[in-house]
Amino acid sequence: MNYDTKTSFDLANLKVLVVDDQEDVRRGLKRLITTLGCEVEMSPSAEDALKLLRKQPIDIVFTDLKMDGMSGEELLKEINQEWTDVMVVLITGHGTIELAVDCLRNGASHFITKPFDNKEIIAFIERAGYGILARRQARDNASKQKSRTLIAADKAMRRVMELVEQVAPRKVPVLIEGASGTGKDLIANEIHNHSPVYEKPFVAINCIALPDSLLESELFGYKKGAFTGALKDASGLFEQVSGGTVFLDEVSSMSPLFQGKLLRVLQEKKVRPLGSDVERPVDFRVISASNRNLEELVHKGEFREDLYYRLQVMKISVPSLKDRKECIQALAGHFLKTTAAEFFYDEHPVPELSPATMEVLLNHSWPGNVRELENTIQRALIICQGDKILPSHLGILDDSYVAESLFRQELTSYEEGKQQAIEAFQREYVQTVLQRTDGNISRAAEMCGLTRAALQRIMRKLQLEPGKVTQ
């Protein structure tokens, strides 16, 4: 099971539109761009492109400047007015290069000349695309944090919340350590929300997802001409937050070279954009997170000691879910309500977690931590057809669980254990079928491959009633 629900930095998540009145040009660019995995749409005219833009989200538009009807220049103006986040790349012949340069001043991101330089196009899409995906993830994370709740129903998490309250008012760097899926991003957001600058930006960057070059340009900014596709100056996130908070997730993945550059920024509170000789003052609070123990990495020589002490003026360790069993019931109930509200269009009745289901949740090892629990509840809610979520809906049962359950019951013999396992299977199986058939015994018997009389005998033995399928 994949427990990572964060937005992927795969270029397959990028949508590109090619606009040209020449079919061979459209198809040629589509073939080239799809080699990166991007989803590519085509339009034969600017008018058609506008219709498509109104129907679906597009990240980058490649458009010819000279076309019958509306020109590429006019299309650029329309896009700049209605879709400010869309990047526009102009396709031009040598006779219209001056016009293309004028368009750059009016908001175009880049221009390419015919015949195309395939390497130039690929390089532009890679850099621009990763930048788009990084900003999208930052926006998505900020949006998700507003609707997510931090639940501290056990002593360990209450201690974490005490530390959050202590450190939030003070502008000191905080390092959050914990396994993947424990909610380190929630802790970071909680610190920001309880700080005096809660109204200022909170921006999260996943360091493991970005190469050094892109990480540097996103955080430090760049000057026009610093690299292929840098056609205008751009400020970095350290400058953009302007007194807010920058959350650096998975800092252990940073290369030694970038660690040195980050250390300098933290020491001097100045950044030097790529391609610039001038430093700019910056004001931000840094919160970092790692799913690896940074102190151990320092001892191994895999992480800079001076940067480690800069980042961990205050350290918060988030316990794994297996070490905070008291939280599981509260978390499961919370995810049940939020998932129902998110996935169903109407006031759908929220099913309950049966006692047997809760026992499974409490005894699962949760290698994916809170994120795995959330995914498990989401899956169960979608699969469940009745008013109770059963263990079979969770998708996490295995043979080891059955064995552990039996041993917890202190069985006296193999035969007794076998009989109880059979009865547990029968009970769960029959209840699931009765739920799916709304208690209709005839339909349930047909689904089981049994006669109605045989199913009724099993139900009597298990003391099950069609209208009361509980565990």
Describe the structure.
The chain has 471 residues and is an alpha/beta fold. It folds into three domains: 119 residues, Response regulator (Rossmann fold, 3-Layer(aba) Sandwich); 172 residues, Rossmann fold; 140 residues, Orthogonal Bundle (Helicase, Ruva Protein, domain 3). It has a five-stranded parallel beta sheet, with helices on both faces. Strands 7-10-13-6-14 form a five-stranded parallel beta sheet. Strands 8-9 form a two-stranded antiparallel sheet. β11 and β12 form a beta hairpin. α2 runs parallel beside α3, α13 crosses α15 and α19 crosses α20.
Describe, in short, the structure shown.
By secondary structure, this protein is α/β, with parallel strands linked by helices. It has helices at residues 23-34, 46-55, 72-82, 97-105, 118-147, 155-167, 184-193, 212-220, 237-240, 256-268, 294-299, 305-311, 328-343, 355-363, 369-383, 391-394, 399-408, 414-436, 441-448, 452-462; strands at 15-19, 39-43, 60-64, 87-92, 110-113, 174-177, 202-206, 221-222, 234-235, 245-249, 270-271, 280-281, 285-290, 314-317, 352-353, 388-389.
Helices, strands, pairings?
Blueprint: E1 15-19, H1 23-34, E2 39-43, H2 46-55, E3 60-64, H3 72-82, E4 87-92, H4 97-105, E5 110-113, H5 118-147, H6 155-167, E6 174-177, H7 184-193, E7 202-206, H8 212-220, E8 221-222, E9 234-235, H9 237-240, E10 245-249, H10 256-268, E11 270-271, E12 280-281, E13 285-290, H11 294-299, H12 305-311, E14 314-317, H13 328-343, E15 352-353, H14 355-363, H15 369-383, E16 388-389, H16 391-394, H17 399-408, H18 414-436, H19 441-448, H20 452-462
Parallel strand pairs: 1-2, 1-3, 3-4, 4-5, 6-13, 6-14, 7-10, 10-13, 15-16
Antiparallel strand pairs: 8-9, 11-12
Helix pairs in contact: 2-3, 13-15, 18-19, 18-20, 19-20
